[in-house]
1-aminocyclopropane-1-carboxylate deaminase-related
Amino acid sequence: MNLKPEKLSLATFPTPIHHCSNGVDIKLDSMSGCEMSGNKIRKLEFLLQDALNKKSTIILTTGGSGSNHCRATAVAAKRLGLKSLLLLRSTESESKKIDGNLFISTLVGAKIEFITRKEYQIRNELLAKRAKELEQEGEVPYIIPEGGSNALGSWGYSSCFEEILKQRENLQMYNKIIVPTGSVGTVAGLVVGVNLSGTKNCEIIGVPVCNNSEYFSKRLENVIQDFNQLYGTEVNTKCARFVDGYIGEGYSVPYQPAMEQIKILAQTEGIILDHCYTGKAWNALVSLIEKGELDPQSDKILFIHTGGIFSVFPYKDLYL
Protein backbone atom coordinates (compact mmCIF):
# COMPACT_ATOMS: atom_id res chain seq x y z
CA MET A 1 0.00 0.00 0.00
CA ASN A 2 1.35 3.41 -0.98
CA LEU A 3 1.01 5.74 2.00
CA LYS A 4 2.87 8.65 0.45
CA PRO A 5 0.74 11.79 -0.05
CA GLU A 6 0.76 13.68 -3.33
CA LYS A 7 3.40 16.36 -3.71
CA LEU A 8 4.49 19.23 -5.88
CA SER A 9 7.57 19.19 -8.10
CA LEU A 10 9.51 22.31 -7.12
CA ALA A 11 13.15 21.22 -7.21
CA THR A 12 15.72 19.35 -9.27
CA PHE A 13 16.01 15.74 -8.13
CA PRO A 14 17.86 13.47 -7.79
CA THR A 15 20.70 15.53 -6.38
CA PRO A 16 24.20 14.20 -7.11
CA ILE A 17 26.54 12.38 -4.75
CA HIS A 18 30.16 13.56 -4.66
CA HIS A 19 32.99 11.23 -3.57
CA CYS A 20 35.59 13.05 -1.47
CA SER A 21 39.28 12.28 -1.24
CA ASN A 22 38.89 11.37 2.45
CA GLY A 23 36.58 8.49 1.53
CA VAL A 24 33.34 10.19 2.54
CA ASP A 25 30.50 10.76 0.09
CA ILE A 26 28.45 13.98 0.11
CA LYS A 27 24.89 14.14 -1.18
CA LEU A 28 24.57 17.62 -2.59
CA ASP A 29 21.07 18.74 -1.68
CA SER A 30 22.64 22.17 -2.02
CA MET A 31 22.03 21.55 -5.74
CA SER A 32 18.27 21.03 -5.46
CA GLY A 33 17.73 24.41 -7.09
CA CYS A 34 18.83 28.02 -6.84
CA GLU A 35 16.45 30.32 -4.95
CA MET A 36 14.85 27.24 -3.35
CA SER A 37 18.07 25.26 -2.86
CA GLY A 38 18.72 23.13 0.20
CA ASN A 39 16.93 20.50 2.24
CA LYS A 40 13.78 22.47 3.07
CA ILE A 41 12.34 22.24 -0.42
CA ARG A 42 11.92 18.47 -0.08
CA LYS A 43 9.54 19.01 2.83
CA LEU A 44 7.85 21.98 1.18
CA GLU A 45 6.88 19.90 -1.86
CA PHE A 46 4.52 17.94 0.41
CA LEU A 47 3.48 20.77 2.73
CA LEU A 48 2.64 23.25 -0.01
CA GLN A 49 0.71 20.63 -1.95
CA ASP A 50 -1.40 20.22 1.18
CA ALA A 51 -1.80 23.99 1.38
CA LEU A 52 -3.05 24.11 -2.21
CA ASN A 53 -5.44 21.22 -1.57
CA LYS A 54 -6.91 23.25 1.29
CA LYS A 55 -7.33 26.33 -0.95
CA SER A 56 -4.92 28.34 1.20
CA THR A 57 -4.07 31.90 0.21
CA ILE A 58 -1.22 32.70 2.60
CA ILE A 59 1.56 30.60 4.14
CA LEU A 60 2.77 31.33 7.67
CA THR A 61 6.02 30.02 9.07
CA THR A 62 8.83 30.98 11.43
CA GLY A 63 12.59 30.81 11.94
CA GLY A 64 15.67 32.89 12.59
CA SER A 65 16.35 36.11 10.70
CA GLY A 66 18.65 34.21 8.33
CA SER A 67 16.43 31.15 8.02
CA ASN A 68 16.96 28.90 4.99
CA HIS A 69 13.52 27.43 5.57
CA CYS A 70 11.77 30.80 5.59
CA ARG A 71 13.56 31.89 2.43
CA ALA A 72 12.65 28.67 0.60
CA THR A 73 9.05 28.96 1.83
CA ALA A 74 8.74 32.58 0.67
CA VAL A 75 10.12 31.80 -2.79
CA ALA A 76 8.09 28.61 -3.26
CA ALA A 77 4.89 30.31 -2.11
CA LYS A 78 5.43 33.12 -4.60
CA ARG A 79 5.98 30.59 -7.41
CA LEU A 80 2.60 29.09 -6.54
CA GLY A 81 0.82 32.42 -6.41
CA LEU A 82 0.52 32.43 -2.63
CA LYS A 83 1.39 35.11 -0.11
CA SER A 84 3.69 34.44 2.82
CA LEU A 85 4.11 35.78 6.34
CA LEU A 86 7.37 35.08 8.17
CA LEU A 87 7.81 35.51 11.93
CA LEU A 88 11.56 35.91 12.26
CA ARG A 89 13.51 35.78 15.51
CA SER A 90 15.87 38.74 15.44
CA THR A 91 17.73 41.32 17.44
CA GLU A 92 17.34 44.99 16.48
CA SER A 93 20.70 45.00 14.70
CA GLU A 94 19.94 41.77 12.79
CA SER A 95 16.60 43.12 11.58
CA LYS A 96 18.39 46.05 9.95
CA LYS A 97 20.87 43.81 8.12
CA ILE A 98 18.97 42.89 4.94
CA ASP A 99 21.35 40.31 3.50
CA GLY A 100 21.53 36.62 2.62
CA ASN A 101 18.30 34.67 3.12
CA LEU A 102 16.55 37.70 4.59
CA PHE A 103 17.33 39.65 1.42
CA ILE A 104 15.82 36.94 -0.80
CA SER A 105 12.70 36.69 1.38
CA THR A 106 12.29 40.46 1.26
CA LEU A 107 12.90 40.59 -2.49
CA VAL A 108 10.11 38.13 -3.29
CA GLY A 109 7.65 40.17 -1.25
CA ALA A 110 7.21 38.10 1.88
CA LYS A 111 5.57 39.95 4.74
CA ILE A 112 8.11 39.89 7.55
CA GLU A 113 7.44 40.46 11.23
CA PHE A 114 10.39 40.39 13.62
CA ILE A 115 9.93 38.85 17.05
CA THR A 116 12.23 38.77 20.07
CA ARG A 117 14.03 35.69 21.36
CA LYS A 118 11.56 35.59 24.25
CA GLU A 119 8.60 35.74 21.86
CA TYR A 120 10.19 32.98 19.80
CA GLN A 121 9.70 30.61 22.72
CA ILE A 122 5.94 30.86 22.06
CA ARG A 123 6.27 30.94 18.27
CA ASN A 124 3.57 28.33 17.66
CA GLU A 125 1.06 30.35 19.68
CA LEU A 126 2.04 33.49 17.77
CA LEU A 127 1.58 31.71 14.43
CA ALA A 128 -1.87 30.51 15.50
CA LYS A 129 -2.81 34.02 16.63
CA ARG A 130 -1.72 35.61 13.35
CA ALA A 131 -3.54 32.90 11.40
CA LYS A 132 -6.77 33.69 13.23
CA GLU A 133 -6.33 37.40 12.53
CA LEU A 134 -5.76 36.69 8.84
CA GLU A 135 -8.89 34.55 8.71
CA GLN A 136 -10.86 37.54 9.95
CA GLU A 137 -9.40 39.51 7.04
CA GLY A 138 -10.69 36.94 4.54
CA GLU A 139 -7.48 34.96 4.03
CA VAL A 140 -7.15 31.17 4.18
CA PRO A 141 -3.95 30.69 6.20
CA TYR A 142 -1.77 27.59 6.25
CA ILE A 143 0.78 27.20 9.03
CA ILE A 144 4.08 25.43 8.38
CA PRO A 145 6.04 24.76 11.59
CA GLU A 146 9.67 25.73 12.11
CA GLY A 147 11.81 23.92 9.55
CA GLY A 148 8.79 22.26 7.97
CA SER A 149 9.31 19.61 10.63
CA ASN A 150 6.14 17.64 11.21
CA ALA A 151 4.66 14.30 10.19
CA LEU A 152 3.72 15.41 6.67
CA GLY A 153 7.06 17.16 6.15
CA SER A 154 8.84 13.92 7.08
CA TRP A 155 7.93 12.49 3.69
CA GLY A 156 10.47 14.87 2.17
CA TYR A 157 13.49 13.04 3.51
CA SER A 158 11.82 9.67 3.39
CA SER A 159 11.72 10.32 -0.36
CA CYS A 160 15.35 11.41 -0.22
CA PHE A 161 16.25 8.08 1.39
CA GLU A 162 14.48 6.27 -1.47
CA GLU A 163 16.53 8.39 -3.86
CA ILE A 164 19.75 7.35 -2.10
CA LEU A 165 18.78 3.68 -2.30
CA LYS A 166 18.31 4.00 -6.07
CA GLN A 167 21.65 5.78 -6.44
CA ARG A 168 23.34 2.91 -4.56
CA GLU A 169 21.39 0.19 -6.39
CA ASN A 170 24.48 -1.67 -7.60
CA LEU A 171 26.74 -0.54 -4.76
CA GLN A 172 27.03 -1.22 -1.05
CA MET A 173 24.49 0.87 0.87
CA TYR A 174 25.71 3.46 3.36
CA ASN A 175 25.75 2.33 6.98
CA LYS A 176 26.29 5.86 8.34
CA ILE A 177 24.35 8.93 7.19
CA ILE A 178 25.26 12.22 8.88
CA VAL A 179 23.21 15.39 8.75
CA PRO A 180 22.95 18.68 10.68
CA THR A 181 19.73 19.22 12.60
CA GLY A 182 18.02 22.32 13.91
CA SER A 183 14.38 21.23 13.96
CA VAL A 184 14.73 17.42 13.55
CA GLY A 185 12.62 17.15 10.38
CA THR A 186 15.42 15.91 8.12
CA VAL A 187 16.46 13.24 10.63
CA ALA A 188 12.81 12.23 11.09
CA GLY A 189 12.35 11.81 7.35
CA LEU A 190 15.46 9.66 7.02
CA VAL A 191 14.27 7.52 9.95
CA VAL A 192 10.94 7.03 8.18
CA GLY A 193 12.81 6.10 5.00
CA VAL A 194 14.95 3.51 6.78
CA ASN A 195 11.90 1.94 8.41
CA LEU A 196 9.55 1.90 5.42
CA SER A 197 12.24 0.52 3.09
CA GLY A 198 13.25 -2.21 5.55
CA THR A 199 16.90 -1.15 5.27
CA LYS A 200 19.15 -2.84 7.83
CA ASN A 201 22.34 -1.57 9.47
CA CYS A 202 21.95 2.07 8.47
CA GLU A 203 22.52 4.58 11.27
CA ILE A 204 21.27 8.15 10.97
CA ILE A 205 23.52 10.53 12.93
CA GLY A 206 22.13 13.98 13.64
CA VAL A 207 24.47 16.81 14.62
CA PRO A 208 22.56 19.43 16.65
CA VAL A 209 23.27 23.07 15.81
CA CYS A 210 21.30 24.21 18.86
CA ASN A 211 20.01 22.62 22.07
CA ASN A 212 21.35 19.07 22.72
CA SER A 213 20.87 15.39 21.95
CA GLU A 214 18.30 14.91 24.72
CA TYR A 215 16.15 17.69 23.29
CA PHE A 216 16.34 16.31 19.76
CA SER A 217 15.75 12.71 20.82
CA LYS A 218 12.48 13.76 22.47
CA ARG A 219 11.50 15.93 19.52
CA LEU A 220 12.23 13.07 17.11
CA GLU A 221 10.06 10.70 19.15
CA ASN A 222 7.21 13.22 19.03
CA VAL A 223 7.38 13.67 15.25
CA ILE A 224 7.57 9.91 14.65
CA GLN A 225 4.68 9.30 17.05
CA ASP A 226 2.59 11.81 15.10
CA PHE A 227 3.64 10.14 11.84
CA ASN A 228 2.58 6.70 13.08
CA GLN A 229 -0.77 8.01 14.28
CA LEU A 230 -1.43 9.83 11.01
CA TYR A 231 -0.37 7.06 8.62
CA GLY A 232 -0.94 3.89 10.67
CA THR A 233 2.71 2.86 10.52
CA GLU A 234 5.05 1.37 13.11
CA VAL A 235 8.16 3.45 12.49
CA ASN A 236 10.69 3.42 15.35
CA THR A 237 13.72 5.61 16.03
CA LYS A 238 16.26 2.88 16.86
CA CYS A 239 18.36 3.73 13.81
CA ALA A 240 18.99 7.35 14.89
CA ARG A 241 21.26 9.06 17.37
CA PHE A 242 22.55 12.57 18.02
CA VAL A 243 26.07 13.70 18.87
CA ASP A 244 26.75 16.68 21.13
CA GLY A 245 29.73 18.99 21.39
CA TYR A 246 29.85 20.77 18.03
CA ILE A 247 27.63 23.83 18.49
CA GLY A 248 30.30 26.22 19.76
CA GLU A 249 28.91 29.35 21.40
CA GLY A 250 25.40 28.93 20.04
CA TYR A 251 23.05 28.69 17.10
CA SER A 252 24.38 30.44 13.99
CA VAL A 253 27.43 31.71 15.90
CA PRO A 254 30.56 30.97 13.84
CA TYR A 255 32.65 28.24 15.48
CA GLN A 256 36.39 28.35 14.76
CA PRO A 257 37.01 24.58 14.32
CA ALA A 258 34.08 24.45 11.91
CA MET A 259 35.27 27.52 10.00
CA GLU A 260 38.64 25.83 9.49
CA GLN A 261 36.98 22.69 8.13
CA ILE A 262 34.81 24.81 5.82
CA LYS A 263 37.96 26.31 4.28
CA ILE A 264 39.62 22.92 3.92
CA LEU A 265 36.63 21.36 2.15
CA ALA A 266 36.23 24.38 -0.13
CA GLN A 267 39.89 24.22 -1.14
CA THR A 268 40.08 20.43 -1.57
CA GLU A 269 36.67 19.55 -3.04
CA GLY A 270 35.16 22.84 -4.23
CA ILE A 271 32.17 22.37 -1.94
CA ILE A 272 30.96 25.34 0.11
CA LEU A 273 29.43 24.80 3.55
CA ASP A 274 27.83 27.39 5.83
CA HIS A 275 28.74 28.37 9.39
CA CYS A 276 25.32 27.63 10.89
CA TYR A 277 24.45 24.08 9.80
CA THR A 278 26.62 22.15 7.40
CA GLY A 279 29.97 23.52 8.60
CA LYS A 280 29.34 22.41 12.17
CA ALA A 281 28.05 19.01 11.07
CA TRP A 282 31.03 18.45 8.76
CA ASN A 283 33.37 19.43 11.59
CA ALA A 284 31.62 16.81 13.75
CA LEU A 285 32.14 14.20 11.03
CA VAL A 286 35.85 15.00 10.74
CA SER A 287 36.18 14.90 14.53
CA LEU A 288 34.45 11.51 14.77
CA ILE A 289 36.83 10.14 12.15
CA GLU A 290 39.84 11.52 14.03
CA LYS A 291 38.56 9.93 17.25
CA GLY A 292 38.19 6.57 15.51
CA GLU A 293 34.42 6.49 16.03
CA LEU A 294 33.92 6.48 12.27
CA ASP A 295 36.26 4.92 9.71
CA PRO A 296 35.93 5.66 5.98
CA GLN A 297 37.89 2.48 5.30
CA SER A 298 35.34 0.18 6.93
CA ASP A 299 32.22 2.39 7.06
CA LYS A 300 30.28 3.59 4.06
CA ILE A 301 29.65 7.19 5.12
CA LEU A 302 27.28 9.69 3.51
CA PHE A 303 27.13 13.33 4.57
CA ILE A 304 24.03 15.22 3.46
CA HIS A 305 24.77 18.80 2.40
CA THR A 306 21.55 20.56 3.35
CA GLY A 307 22.38 23.83 1.57
CA GLY A 308 22.76 27.29 3.08
CA ILE A 309 24.78 29.10 0.42
CA PHE A 310 22.92 32.39 1.02
CA SER A 311 24.04 32.33 4.66
CA VAL A 312 27.67 32.57 3.61
CA PHE A 313 27.62 36.11 2.23
CA PRO A 314 26.60 38.10 5.35
CA TYR A 315 29.60 36.54 7.14
CA LYS A 316 32.04 36.49 4.22
CA ASP A 317 34.88 38.12 6.18
CA LEU A 318 34.94 35.14 8.55
CA TYR A 319 35.35 32.65 5.72
CA LEU A 320 38.59 34.08 4.34
